[in-house]
Amino acid sequence: MSDDALLRIDCETRCFYGTGSSCAPVGERLARVLPRATLTMLDGGHFLPTEKPRELSAALHEFFRG
């Protein structure tokens, strides 16, 4: 998506990426461009739900709890 398209997304967004994931630069871009985005980097790779389930669950819980 273009930056212009991302700028039109107006909802709170939490991006979760693993520090060892090759997709981490995408998360950094999303957090930089999306108006209401926050990036959470977890120590892991690309498959955080299976690699770091407790850490991801705790971060998601914190996000939804507000």
In short:
By secondary structure, this protein is α+β, with helices and mostly antiparallel strands. The chain has one domain. 48% of the residues lie in helices and 18% in strands.
The count of domains is 1
Shape: flat
Largest sheet: 2 strands, parallel
What proportion of the residues is helical, as a percent range? 40-55%
- Beta-strand percentage range: 15-25%
Instruction: Quote the distance from N terminus to C terminus.
Output: 28 Å
Q: Average pLDDT across residues?
A: 94
Number of strands: 2
Order of helix and strand elements from N to C terminus: HEHEHH
Uncertain segments are: none
Coarse structural class: alpha+beta
Report the radius of gyration as a whole number of Å.
12 Å
How many helical stretches?
4
Give the strand line-up of the largest sheet: 1-2
Plain-language structure description:
This protein has one domain (3-65). A two-stranded parallel sheet has the order 1-2. The protein is built from 4 helices and 2 strands. The termini are far apart. The protein is α+β, with helices and mostly antiparallel strands. It has helices at 3-7, 24-33, 48-51, 53-65, and strands at residues 13-18, 37-42. The mean pLDDT is 94. The protein is flat.
Give the key terms.
two-stranded parallel sheet, alpha+beta, 4 helices, flat
Describe the secondary structure blueprint for this structure.
Layout: H1 3-7, E1 13-18, H2 24-33, E2 37-42, H3 48-51, H4 53-65
Parallel strand pairs: 1-2
